[in-house]
Design brief:
The chain is 17% helix and 29% strand. It is an alpha+beta fold. The chain has a four-stranded antiparallel sheet with strand order 1-5-3-2, with helices on one face. Strands 4-12-6-10 form a four-stranded mixed sheet.
Amino acid sequence: MRIKRSLALGCLSVSLGCGAFGQSAGTAEFEAADIRVNKSGDPQSADFLAGGQISLRSMTMKSLIGIGWKETRMLPELTSLALAVAPSVAQFKVLSNDYLKGGPAWLDSDRFDVIAKAPAGTSGDALRLMVQKLLTDRFHLVVHREERVMKVYAMVVAKGGSKLKASDGSGDQVCTPSIGDDNVYHRECHNTTMARLAEQLASFAPRFFEGRPVVDATDLKGAWDFRLDWTPLSGGLAGLQSAPGQEFDTGTTIFKTMEKNLGLKLEQQERSMPIIVIDQVDRVPTEN
């Protein structure tokens, strides 16, 4: 997925177990919205523009549901509703059916363009509810959440204890991405809770996690400052055919850097996790 930012919106809160999931989208809605079928074959892209306008191009219904329902496991490159935290990396992985149940086959094949206008200064959660209402009104989408036992990575404190530095509490929770000249990937995280790290970690390096979510089991309270460094697949961005989850020969995996630099370990477990279930959705949106 190509992610492009036209206006820095900052890091917005994301919760995989969002309490608002079962709630109605209410009265929050875009001032204007245009939805059209896209048959261009272009990659998915997202722009958030000045003045509250959003432009979602060549989006599948799965991606739109992931944005509207704050389900970042569907969109490993999207670590916030703003789509502005993670850079575009060719490691985007299509939504695993582990997180979505029901619905027709076209959910990940048909593409749509959504151009919508919200009032300037609209919050991230309000934008999410507007996307929900738009899909409900125009596609008659109905969903609910269920629990399913699935494989996860539990983030625990490693033997020897945590190596995290407590944050002074100033500023937003943010993990700033960068890629060095030596093809080492970085995330500089500030004022970040362990719950937030668990939410975002699989999106930092999706091919390492095989589509599995990360669960915070550290019992560490408060916010922290830290840095993650790791090397991607063998051959860098060109090595996309390498098997996910394998140990790579290019340097440090994200599993190793977590334990070495942060004193945190990722353990494979099975846990009951929430999934999205589609009860109804129309293939063709109502007219603009």
